[in-house]
Fold these 4 entries.
Entry 1:
Amino acid sequence: MQPLTNTQAIIDFCLAPLSLDMGTEAEREVRRRMAHVIGTFQRKSAQPVAVDFTNMPSQVINEAAHGNE
């Protein structure tokens, strides 16, 4: 996977695991908020920002500690 620089591509990648209903008010609001955060960060950065999800550490959940839900 190549690092992502396009705001919508970053948002799409982040929202994919949630399987949100496309076109709902909630989905549009989440996209609007994420676009604002990413855009603000990119504008304040001195250089172009790319997100490389291949270097993201994996998340391990201790199911026993959370009630095996």
Entry 2:
Amino acid sequence: MKRLRYAAGAGVAVLGLAGCMGPTSLKPMLDDSEGYSVRYFSLNMLSPAARASLAAPGTEPLGFKRLTAKGEVLVSDTNAPASHRHIVFEHTLINDGNDGMVRAIERRSVDGLPLLIDYWSSYRGVAMLSVQRGLPARNLAAPIMSVRSVSTWKSMANMQEHTTYDYVANYGYGDPLRPSLKLERRCMSGTFHDAGKIAPGLTGQAIDLTCDDINGSGAKSAQSDFVWLRQYGVALVTKLTTLNGITSFKYDSVTAQ
């Protein structure tokens, strides 16, 4: 069976699971990306147990309705030299209910050719709720993985410096009777700085977040670095580090409606 691993992406911070249900069709992901995102990555698609642990609609307002980030990707593989291909990304975050949850659509291309398409939902861009990756060149997509239950979920509504933010949940694919895997994301905030350092035109304050991904055995499997934008109340990934290498993101523009 082919396995599609959720590797580094501008929105898909590493969860450390591989698609164990087998690839699915890519076509529905490409035909109507907006509609596909609404149908499969809205809050009501999560399990009742997961929804009950999240903020209620309207209780955690965000500073945007739709935010689009564009930039370049640099991939450094431990088994190969740094890529000299021109890889660019665009990902769009959508705020549906002012509850801290955002839907996202991310596209990445290399030398002008489609490389991947990701759909995901998360808490403020940091803690993943559901995710799916498609690979156009292979005409394949991994199955949707989503949170089934939540153990720890710390609010970022009032972001503080030098503070730990923990997110512990069980994730799985499809049928709730299938095995799930417990994963933890443990984040530490730094100090506030000028958001304009991240991308031209950004205003206000930003704060760096360093997040360790902890697997069910208690071992660190990856590190995700984010910048949290106070004006919008959401985080953008800047670097992902795994055993396979480092993926860095340079933002050329961030615009919001």
Entry 3:
Amino acid sequence: MEMNAPIAFEMNVYAIEEKTGNQAIAKMSLPRGQYPTPDTIRDLVKTATESFPDGYVLMDKKQFFNAIITEEYGKQNTTFATPGSPDFDENYVQGSDE
């Protein structure tokens, strides 16, 4: 096994049950000692999605942003909008040469 550095990453994948609004987080471990690639992360998101209980789906951008705000600052009396489409962009942005 190739190793890039003495690193270990854990990734949270956020889900929501659309009828009730209940939220869930799937904790995924990335390969130890290796820099994560976009493909590795996409594969783990897919694996997490397949393990969600019935009725749970990946959060959209607005749901995710509001979940993060709640984690950081506590329950809010309002929800926040996000610009653009509610769907996440699949393009790899950070560090991209494209």
Entry 4:
Amino acid sequence: MKQVFKIREDGTFDFSDSIVTDVDVEGYGEPDPTKHYKDDGTEMTEDEIDAIRNVPAPPTSEQKIAALEAQLAVEREDKLMVMEALAGIYESVLALKEGGGAA
């Protein structure tokens, strides 16, 4: 027994219309097992197959955690720089007030 699919007039397969049989049925055929087909029954091009094969794997949990930790470290450094700059400005203002009040 084999599953065969309706062959449209344009030569593509209609994957929504299939039968299981052990004899040849006119208008039905088996897709070539060495080829890849899209849902619409047309054969995929090498570029389409390569695009599917070359999809990068999603990052692992460990990779996501490492990226978030690195981002957090950068943000901490940025905040420390802002706080140090603000402290420097505050000290300068205090120094000006102390120097200006004595004159």
